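Supplementary Methods S3. Complex input for the 2-acetamido-2-deoxy-beta-D-glucopyranose-bound model.
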Amino acid sequence: MKLVVYLYLSMVVLGVQAWPTVKRSFELYPPPPTNVHTISDCMHVASEPGDYIFKKSAPSSSSTSSQPLGVLNREAATLLELEAGAEAEIAAAAAAAAAEAALDVCGLYVIGEPDTIVEITMKHYDVNCETGGLMAFVDGWELNGEYFPGIKDHHRPLEDRVFEFCNNYKHWPRISNKKFFRSSQNAALLQYRIPARGSFVANVRFHKITQPCNVLVQDTAAVYKMANYGHARNCTLSALFPASISLANLRIGGKIVRAQQKVNYDCNMFTDRLEIGGSAGLDAGAMELASAVCGASNEPGPEQAIFCGVTNVRLLSTGRYQNQVAVVVRKADEQDLDIATLMCAL
Ligand SMILES: *[C@@H]1O[C@H](CO)[C@@H](O)[C@H](O)[C@H]1NC(C)=O
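Predicted complex, serialized as structure tokens:
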């Protein structure tokens, strides 16, 4: 017993002695450096703040056979200019190769918490326009030519959502290298096409906002609050997986619709409604509808499963009413087949 007490006491003493050291070392060390991430995949999804680094080196001089496509094409093009029209076949081949290289677009897909927007600062970039290099900031995500938020859903036209840039080394004076972008929702994309050598460092930060509208779902199980805050606006929640959806805390539509204190799942006739459905791609404008909901209820509603590549929940508001709903999203699997309300064609 004595031994145990002694041990206990010495631990306490040691613990007390250890404290000042810990505290001092904590004070001595500078704050941790910014998180640094190396981009390795062509489609790289990022949800953490920090610096994202991409670097593509020039091939070493020993392996001259593996020259980058862009350079070869340019040489071919120059050759053809000299012997104008002589070798049309090579021209066609070079054009095809150039088209193939152009397809090689990669992206840093940034996603934050639902109530955030994304800020990207280009700390550095060396992407030569001349060799076919190009970068673009996209306010949202783009996949296979489809956008989130959908083109019709965004308050900015597409031209204003995509900002392209590269280094024009022929231009003098050289313009400032630093660039700064902000998205309108929790999703943003930095696209890049670097056929020859090149590099960039993009700093990613997230900022809280108070009235989120379009939200890209990050978690495979979470509750999302959707509301119009009295505005005339359409907001979409998109999950990039088949999902089971249920609703709680629902208030959508005018007094008459809400009076019954129940959820109405057949509200196509009403201007203010919640649409639940799915689509094959990112564009929620092309979604198939499973149900259109309005009314009022505090009870959590039944679950329904949407078996599509993308699950969408859209809140349509005219601005006449204060609409709100809590959407419970969970990834759907085979066990949810009996609660399926929509199966998209594969
Ligand atoms: C919301 O969507 C509906 C139906 O697609 C459309 O008629 C309406 O103009 C949209 N409202 C806003 C504010 O974009």
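Confidence is low (pLDDT under 50) at residues 1-25, 61-87. The radius of gyration is 27 Å.
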